[in-house]
Amino acid sequence: MMRRLLVVLGLVVLLAGCSPAPPTHAPTDPAVSTPAVSQHELETERVRAGIAACPTSGDQAARPGGLPDITLGCLGGTRQVRLSALRGRPMVINIWAQWCGPCRLEAPHLAAVSKQAGHKVEFIGIDYGDPNPSAAIEFARASGWRYPQLQDQRQQVKAPLKIIGVPQTFLVDANGKIAYRQVKPLSSDEQLRALIHDHLGVTL
User: How many domains does the chain fold into?
Assistant: First the structure.
């Protein structure tokens, strides 16, 4: 009996180590292990991936109910973007990470609808809590994202936007006010188009 018990315990331990689940949460300290890739190399990767340069932001004051007054760097670029000063067009802002499984599932919907949107709606991604910008650029390329991507390795938007996990998607009107927050992964192109219509008044 003791011998049989030991065999069973051994199998349990062996199986437990065979199929690690992909991480679904941010590393404890995402800033501690930045890969040794130069800014020039990252910018080259971004351009090759077809990802647009980040937008310029003005000097408008933060508005109540709007994006936080936080400045983030461009993923694969040197431009600094002040979130609270992004104005002028309705926006879809998606917060994601290349280590996030659900982000991979919703990625095709963001790619498809962003292409349909053209200049009607501006799409911006925020790579969140991610220690590997090179892998993030590759994720965006493979996902078909051609719109600008910011990076928030230190999770600066966590508190002001009440981020408890990724992905999350924010719809922001042309005046910079947050009109809607999607806390679950997007499940279809149709769902995203409907949200844009209902909360931003734009038909795609």
Answer: 1
